[in-house]
Each structure stands twice: as structure tokens, then as C-alpha cells.
Amino acid sequence: MGDSEGFLESCGEDTPALAYELRLFISGASPNSIRAVENLKAICEKHLPGRYKLEIIDIHQQKELAEFDNVIALPLLIKKSPGTERRMIGDLSDTNRVLKGLGLIK
């Protein structure tokens, strides 16, 4: 995560209108944060190739965003769109749980 104030990973300029907008709040380079980033990127690349925008926010560098989004536990994934907002806490190692939270499986 380094010195960046936030990291935005886009699937490209031609992102479809129904692209998944994801915001992952982390706490520096903690082991849980690193696992959450790695797990989420792997899930997105496998199940949402070309259909997602991922913003990774280190709360130590962007505390105001954490306050704005009412972050109470870390790591925290917020699915902003499509559909209703969903929140998932943890290192996102349970792929099925993440896919359900994203609405990709029932």
C-alpha cells in the first residue's frame, strides 16, 4: 500500500454500466489487510474480469473516508454497486461468502 493515499484499480476505460464498484478499507500492511487485498483481487479477476472498480483505502492515510463510510472493523469490503450496498468484514478468504455478498451466487 506504501505511500499512496488510496489505490484505485480499474478493469479498464470501457467498464460496463453494471460494473461492480468496490471499496476495501484496510489498516496499513497488517497481515489481515494484505490477505484481504490478495483474496479480493483474485476473486475479482476470476469472477468479475473487466467488470469491477476496486478502491483500496488505508485508514491511516484517509481517516476521513473511513469516518464517512462508518467503518467500525477492518478489513472491510463495501460493495457500492450494483444493487444495494453490502458490507463484508474479514480477510475475505471464504470465497463463497464473498461471492454471495457480491450477489454472484445464491
From TrEMBL:
<dbReference type="GO" id="GO:0048511">
    <property type="term" value="P:rhythmic process"/>
</dbReference>
<feature type="domain" description="KaiB">
    <location>
        <begin position="23"/>
        <end position="104"/>
    </location>
</feature>
<protein>
    <submittedName>
        <fullName>Circadian clock KaiB family protein</fullName>
    </submittedName>
</protein>
<dbReference type="Pfam" id="PF07689">
    <property type="entry name" value="KaiB"/>
</dbReference>
<dbReference type="InterPro" id="IPR011649">
    <property type="entry name" value="KaiB_domain"/>
</dbReference>
<dbReference type="InterPro" id="IPR039022">
    <property type="entry name" value="KaiB-like"/>
</dbReference>
<dbReference type="InterPro" id="IPR036249">
    <property type="entry name" value="Thioredoxin-like_sf"/>
</dbReference>
